[in-house]
Amino acid sequence: MGQELLDYAREATAPGPKTLSATEYRWLARRLTEALADALRVADSRGQRLPDQEEAAEDA
After folding, report:
1. Quick check: 9 and 32 in contact, CB under 8 A?
2. Would the pLDDT of 60 be above 70?
């Protein structure tokens, strides 16, 4: 889903004659916001599983 959304956003914002309505831009902004929130949640979750850099250096 994320890749399809990114492709759509790139196409919609590319220079050229295609323009979207305000409703379509709002839809795109909401979907991109949701995708970014998901990506940040995953990154945060994975980051919490990484050892602290100072602790890792002390253990070495």
Report:
1. yes
2. no
